Amino acid sequence: MTAETDAKLIEEGRKLFAGEWKFVWASPSIETLPPMASMEVAFAGRSNVGKSSLINALTGRNALARTSHTPGRTQELIFFEGPDKSGLRLVDMPGYGYASAPKTKVASWTKLIHQFLLGRATLARVYVLIDARHGIKDVDQDVLKTLDKSAVSYQVVLTKADQVKPLELEKHISETMAALAKHPAAFPEVLVTSSRSGAGMPELRAAMVRLLGERA
């Protein structure tokens, strides 16, 4: 990929996410999913990894996705749609792992996540968000294994990179890359982001524009 191509994709990504983004659907179960139409990219991650903050930073909106200081507040698959004819939907998935909710409810969210990943033809990629301060945990590995079994490609996005010292961040990036080498469906490149500073957002937007082009 040339620098010129990268710059073009970044500019196209900027334009796409500068447009109007809106909430369109919430699904508490597989039976209530919206009809398959636009290409979808989903964001998965542990309950406190910052999925909603990332979606807000991507779209340049403070309150598109609901953020909370209480992990586990997103209890449904939340769908957001881009500008008319953009052909792209974002899906905010319930956080897995720790959540301040009864175990039966956490189990139902987890089941919903796994069913969605395995049976959605319009799902082009899953971005698995990993806290840059901690790296991949055992609970992340379970989701990565499910993704390996599905037909969906996935890419790891490190979040909260602004809260990690540079040397420690480099170490966590290397450890993450080494862990992903054992997962056949994983995209080899790791994206490093910060919702607070905006770092990595142009590259993430560009990655989605590239996906749209591949699916066209």
TrEMBL record:
CDD domains, per the entry: YihA_EngB
Metal-binding found in the keyword field: yes
One Pfam family it belongs to: MMR_HSR1
Domain EngB-type G: 37-214
Biological process annotations from GO: division septum assembly
Keywords: Cell cycle, Cell division, GTP-binding, Magnesium, Metal-binding, Nucleotide-binding, Septation
Gene Ontology molecular functions: GTP binding; metal ion binding
CC annotations in GO: cytosol
Cofactor: Mg(2+)
Job of this protein: Necessary for normal cell division and for the maintenance of normal septation.
Family: Belongs to the TRAFAC class TrmE-Era-EngA-EngB-Septin-like GTPase superfamily. EngB GTPase family.
Protein name (Swiss-Prot/TrEMBL): Probable GTP-binding protein EngB
Source species of the chain: Bradyrhizobium valentinum
Gene (UniProt): engB
